[in-house]
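testing teh design pipeline on a random one, pls ignore if ur not involved
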């Protein structure tokens, strides 16, 4: 099979290397000429990694390359998914499997990302949508450190195709048919990672972050099940697995965003100066609005939203969470 990866960023490059290591026919598409030249001539992508990459990797700035693809992998931020799908479909000549690796929601319609792909892709050009998601940092995958993720699709046959393409001795791939639960889990965890970073920035310790992750998992499960996800999904790679890695790692942009906000005890400067994609910022707004509309209790998400969008002081938000009405521990 021929695979085209849309995006020469860190995650697109790392996943391209997994495929190249597996002797798959893979091509990276990007818009940054320096990155493309670096990949083709130097076998590196020094904008993101110091380490050399598989010498068989190739990149191009010609989007028409998708016409030859059997699989198109979207390695772009969640807010770009819609525009990229609209752009690429005019070059497709036959049905393809679309793999999405981003995590989030549509900022206006609040759709999950697979729903965005399906809505914008002509039916005769789309074989299926598979999400390749789970606890994974590009910085570790590029070094071929052990990683496990899920290929998620309502049709298990399509998930198995993606599983077999990517699986090897350092990159293990499971399948999951709970599209709703998995996509929600990996999106909610970004909000919790911001909260975890805030705690760390405020000088709190392991006890606080353990509590945060546990109660964050409760919020994730409560919300996901209410939207049609399976409870078991949130105890797997796309739930607690992704929650752990994102809430504890300095590789995580969401955690680092929260850390900067916590250190300043304010989100103002970070939001004014940040130029990186932090998926949890937009996700917190979607989840806050949906939880209010559907009467779902998500107190951590609510406080993160108020810090990011209403200028609430982070230390005050934490104080209020700790002094909520006492109750039994429940999901």
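output:
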């Amino acid at each position: 099979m021929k695979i085209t990866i849309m995006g020469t960023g860190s995650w697109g490059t790392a996943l391209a290397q997994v495929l190249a290591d597996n002797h798959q026919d893979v091509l990276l598409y990007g818009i940054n000429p320096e990155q493309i030249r670096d990949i083709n001539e130097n076998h590196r992508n020094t904008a993101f990694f110091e380490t050399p990459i598989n010498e068989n990797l190739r990149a191009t700035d010609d989007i028409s390359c998708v016409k030859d693809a059997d699989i198109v992998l979207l390695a772009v931020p969640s807010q770009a998914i819609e525009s990229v799908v609209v752009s690429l479909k005019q070059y497709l000549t036959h049905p393809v499997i679309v793999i999405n690796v981003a995590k989030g929601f549509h900022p206006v319609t609040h759709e999950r990302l697979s729903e965005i792909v399906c809505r914008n892709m002509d039916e005769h050009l789309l074989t299926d949508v598979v999400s390749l998601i789970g606890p994974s940092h590009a910085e570790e995958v590029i070094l071929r450190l052990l990683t496990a993720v899920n290929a998620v699709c309502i049709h298990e046959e399509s998930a198995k195709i993606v599983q077999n393409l990517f699986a090897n001795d350092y990159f293990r791939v499971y399948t999951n048919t709970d599209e709703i639960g998995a996509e929600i889990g990996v999106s909610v965890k970004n909000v919790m990672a911001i909260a975890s970073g805030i705690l760390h920035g405020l000088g709190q310790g392991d006890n606080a972050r353990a509590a945060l992750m546990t109660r964050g998992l409760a919020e994730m499960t409560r919300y996901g099940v209410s939207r049609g996800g399976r409870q078991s999904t949130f105890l797997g790679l796309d739930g607690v697995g992704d929650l752990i890695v994102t809430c504890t790692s300095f590789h995580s942009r969401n955690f680092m965003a929260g850390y900067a906000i916590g250190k300043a005890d304010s989100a103002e400067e970070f939001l004014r100066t940040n130029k990186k994609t932090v998926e949890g910022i937009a996700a917190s707004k979607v989840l806050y609005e949906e939880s209010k509309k559907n009467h779902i209790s998500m107190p951590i998400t609510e406080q993160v939203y108020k810090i990011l969008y209403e200028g609430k002081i982070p230390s005050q938000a934490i104080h209020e969470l700790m002094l909520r009405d006492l109750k039994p521990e429940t999901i």
